[in-house]
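Page 47, continued from p. 46.
Same chain as before, 345 aa.
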Amino acid sequence: MPSFWLIKTCTVSETDFIASTWFQVDEPLRPSMADTRRPPHDRGHLLWSAEDGPTRMLQGSFDRWVGAVLADDGIDMPFMGGNDAVEATIVARADGIVVGTAAIDHMLQIWAPSLKISWQASDGKRVVKDDEIASLSGDRETLLAMERSILNVLGQLSGIATEAKRWSAIAPGQIACTRKTIWGLMDKWAVHLGGGLTHRLQKNDALMIKENDLASMLQDVDGHSNRIAQFLQEVDVTTSGAFLEIEVRENKEAVIAAAVWAQRREEGVKKLVVMLDNFGPERCQEVAAELVEMGLREHVVLEASGGIEFEHLEQWHECGLDVLSTSAINRGVPPLDVSMLITGA
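Result:
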């Protein structure tokens, strides 16, 4: 027998939307998000652990991106090695967080197994200018052919981790990257090791509903606020993945979303993520304060996205939100300056 739920929204400020709706589901709704102190956007454990290193998911990303990097540099066959042996060191030319050693190990194992590398700085370790990061030995021709790709991977990912650390030092536990990436999951790995949150690893990792989604799904419902309310009343949270997130554009839409979800929390569902899109720190603070006043704040995770700049990060950090998502920590970030020197050069 199917289960029936009666969901009734409460009257909320700044809107006259009041509705009672019956709807049918195949089984009672179940929780979809784990209650943790960190936001549900903390997905880095699916990529990496200090004990075991890269997961199979991350290793698959290594394989795809490393192959592309090498192919673009004209390398389409593994090197077999030779007899002209040399030694080299990789040196940091600036302070930063090292990330990429596991990816380079993966690269060399498949594409240049004759090269041997020993890391003085492992993934996630801080280095200062002139620190030795690694020493290499092997065939001269192979080493010179692989040099640029090794440095590109190491520099790019270390640059992202270093930038993520700069942001997360001011707003710890709040900074999240987005799906606007250069190297996909490798970017998110670097953000994770820099102290940031990964957000969704892939589109289907969690369910995020934006205005285009609502407009296409609920064409017969007038008004964005009404669409938000109806969607949240009817959504099956068991299919939402790691978390359920909905984008709002106005203060009243955030209140509506939280009010509807407060009713559903009685069913045992976990917190709803409400994304405040392009609100600015002051408006975000207003929304957070209003939800606290109405007794709704505990039912939602508040996320801001759009227009978040490092220069104003302290304001964002103090405006009462749980997550600050931005692509600024991984796109357009300067690589960490690293170089390789052959012994005797």
